[in-house]
TrEMBL record:
Protein name according to UniProt: Pectinesterase inhibitor domain
Keywords: Disulfide bond, Signal
GO terms assigned for molecular function: pectinesterase inhibitor activity
InterPro entries linked: PCW_Enzyme_Inhibitor, Pectinesterase_inhib_dom, PMEI_plant
Keyword Signal attributed: yes
Family as reported in the entry's similarity comment: Belongs to the PMEI family.
Source species of the chain: Arabidopsis thaliana x Arabidopsis arenosa
Pectinesterase inhibitor domain segment(s): 27-169
Signal peptide: 1-21
Length: 186
């Protein structure tokens, strides 16, 4: 029950946050830099994270929660756009097939990012990372053609970036255990 209350509060905050920008303090900006240097678009990543901050000093736990929630909300909005606009308005057979495949993929992305967020709140970071990785796999199932561009080209890029940002924040919050070498038997 506490998870649901926290999640609803976080979703309301992210959805209705004013456009007042917070300039992070140096330690917070260093955390953001560590995350964003791992992405393919530093500027997008930095802007995505800083636009969600409400305080100059923010912990990695808060950043991980904000980025995971932002990715999940984006998946929900993308799925809604596919189901409510793109699919019904598609005239071309190729577009309908692409949007239907994307609808199926984004239903899974939505479910996986929802689970990742739940496990983040439960502090089970191993399962959080596993569900985020599954979401990335499902994003790639929404195939888009650059020769026949649709709105899904940008939507997929945006979704992949947001999921990557959440994954990198989660890895800083709780690094995966190191791989162990098998010891040689004498």
């Amino acid at each position: 029950m506490a998870y649901v209350h926290l999640l609803i509060s976080l979703l309301i905050f992210i959805t209705f946050k004013s456009s007042i920008s917070v300039v992070p303090d140096p330690p917070t900006q260093n955390l953001i830099n560590r995350i964003c240097k791992q992405t393919i678009d530093f500027k997008f990543c930095n802007q995505t994270i800083t636009s969600q901050l409400i305080r100059r000093q923010t912990s990695i736990k808060t950043i991980a929660k904000l980025t995971a929630a932002k990715a999940w909300i984006n998946a929900i909005q993308t799925l809604d756009n596919i189901e409510d606009s793109l699919l019904p308005k598609a005239k071309d057979k190729r577009d309908k097939a692409e949007f239907d495949a994307c609808r199926k993929a984004y239903k899974l992305v939505d479910a996986h990012l929802d689970n990742a967020l739940k496990y983040l709140y439960l502090r089970d970071y191993r399962f959080m990372r596993a569900y985020q990785a599954l979401a990335l796999v499902n994003i790639s199932m929404c195939r888009t053609s650059f020769f026949h561009p649709t709105p899904m080209v940008y939507a997929n890029w945006n979704m992949k970036m947001l999921t990557d940002i959440a994954i990198y924040a989660g890895k800083i919050l709780s690094p995966p255990p190191p791989l162990t070498k098998k010891s040689k038997k004498p």
